[in-house]
């Protein structure tokens, strides 16, 4: 970062938080490998914008309200996060996501323009210079990528080293590459490199490119996990915040590689469309570990929401869950694990059902199937579920009753009872 510009910005104390963000962005930019010229164009522009604002504030000729200062800091955080993602992006992902990268960088530039408009210092922005610089950066990056592609297709060993794909990640990479070849309008040099890369991976591993892929397949190469964005976790795995196709999403990474179970869950979930069911966008069964991509729900699960908003209308929330459950049963789907942590609350305060790991279509199970070990969460299980192991509409309704208790009591049903006593199926709850 230019020291003279830094000194000028430091003279305005209210810009110190924004300066700190920009300084971090520069640190990550130093390790960016691909689309580096375009990234340089964005971070240089961010530096100029912050300098323009500092000069205008010192001369008292701009609208430097608290909201505008926060907006400036937020826009610089976007630049910083873009640099963080680009700094950690491997070659193959940068190639497959070129359009997304360009869109993100252009969004960063637009944010900076909008920010200056908010500060009312339009006259200090040389738009033509910015456009010229960015186009020059695009040409520079395109030329470097073309040269690199030309070099790599001539040397299979060098290509594999550049791809740098772990053996366990090869199926996921092949899926992403195969889909790119069939669904995208690639430049000839990029297409040749991906085709050559697929062949090289076949030669060096035991894997073959997939012949068919489900329409809901989302790969590691499609999502960008937000830095420091872990939302929670449990026995199933970890949930993190991420970006996918311009949307903020939640990525649920599984602890086990039970492909069959994951496919069943996604096939059940992906078709459901209802205001009170969390949308599932897709999944990857070839990733290590596998993951599901869901809508990001700002307020977390129901118990977290009630703790943060004790004044919330609990009756309304329970009613919304009942609408989601009624829709599921209308679609002949048993959920199998209704409980507080499987109810998420969106930014509008609406309750939505999530987690379909135990869900199934009713016609897929016969009444004469032999009993099996009960699945679900013990303290929400109906006595007949404990005895027979069979999930039904009725066991969902029982679990819904336990959810009502949990919502109003603020704790799990039978929370203080011993496991063996709960398993007896003879306990009775008292109303809170």
TrEMBL record:
Pfam families, A to Z: PK_Tyr_Ser-Thr (PF07714)
GO biological process annotation, one example: cell surface receptor signaling pathway
Alphabetized UniProt keyword annotations: ATP-binding, Kinase, Nucleotide-binding, Serine/threonine-protein kinase, Transferase
Positions bound to ATP: 252
GO molecular function: ATP binding; protein serine/threonine kinase activity
PROSITE patterns attached to this UniProt entry: PROTEIN_KINASE_ATP (PS00107), PROTEIN_KINASE_DOM (PS50011), PROTEIN_KINASE_ST (PS00108)
Keyword set includes Zinc-finger: no
Annotated Protein kinase domain residues: 225-432
Family classification: Belongs to the protein kinase superfamily.
Protein name per UniProt: Protein kinase domain-containing protein
Organism annotation: Ceriporiopsis subvermispora (strain B)
Lineage, broadest ranks: Eukaryota, Fungi, Dikarya, Basidiomycota, Agaricomycotina
């Amino acid at each position: 970062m230019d020291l003279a510009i830094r000194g000028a910005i430091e003279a305005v104390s209210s810009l110190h938080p924004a300066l700190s963000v920009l300084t971090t962005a520069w640190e990550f930019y130093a390790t960016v490998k691909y689309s580096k010229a375009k990234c340089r164009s964005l971070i240089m522009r961010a530096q100029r914008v912050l300098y323009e604002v500092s000069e205008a504030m010192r001369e008292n000729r701009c609208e430097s309200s608290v909201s505008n200062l926060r907006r400036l800091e937020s826009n610089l955080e976007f630049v910083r996060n873009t640099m963080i993602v680009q700094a950690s992006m491997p070659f193959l992902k940068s190639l497959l996501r070129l359009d997304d990268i360009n869109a993100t960088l252009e969004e960063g530039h637009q944010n900076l323009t909008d920010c200056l408009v908010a500060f009312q210092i339009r006259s200090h922005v040389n738009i033509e210079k910015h456009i010229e610089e960015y186009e020059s950066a695009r040409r520079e990056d395109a030329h470097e990528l073309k040269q690199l592609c030309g070099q790599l297709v001539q040397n299979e060993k060098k290509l594999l080293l550049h791809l740098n794909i772990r053996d366990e990640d090869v199926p996921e990479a092949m899926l992403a590459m195969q889909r790119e070849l069939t669904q995208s309008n690639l430049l000839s040099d990029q297409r040749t490199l991906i085709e050559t890369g697929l062949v090289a991976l076949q030669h060096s591993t035991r894997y073959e490119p997939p012949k068919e892929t489900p329409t809901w397949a989302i790969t590691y190469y499609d999502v960008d996990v937000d830095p420091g964005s872990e939302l929670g976790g449990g026995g199933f795995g970890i949930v993190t915040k991420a970006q996918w196709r311009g949307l903020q999403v939640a990525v649920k990474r599984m602890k086990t590689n039970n492909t069959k179970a994951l496919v069943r869950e996604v096939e059940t979930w992906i078709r459901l469309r209802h205001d009170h069911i969390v949308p599932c966008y897709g999944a990857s069964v070839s990733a290590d570990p596998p993951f599901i991509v869901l809508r990001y729900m700002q307020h977390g699960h129901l118990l977290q929401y009630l703790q943060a908003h004790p004044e919330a209308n609990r009756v309304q929330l329970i009613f919304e869950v009942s609408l989601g459950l009624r829709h599921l049963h209308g679609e002949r789907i048993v959920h199998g694990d209704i409980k507080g942590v499987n109810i998420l609350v969106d930014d509008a305060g609406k309750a939505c059902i999530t987690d379909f790991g135990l869900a199934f279509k009713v016609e897929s199970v016969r009444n004469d199937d032999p009993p099996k070990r009960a699945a679900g969460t013990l303290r929400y299980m109906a006595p007949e579920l404990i005895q027979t192991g069979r999930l039904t509409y009725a066991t969902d309704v029982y679990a819904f009753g336990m959810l009502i208790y949990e919502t109003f009591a603020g704790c799990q049903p039978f929370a203080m009872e011993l496991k063996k006593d709960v398993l007896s199926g003879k306990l009775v709850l008292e109303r809170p």
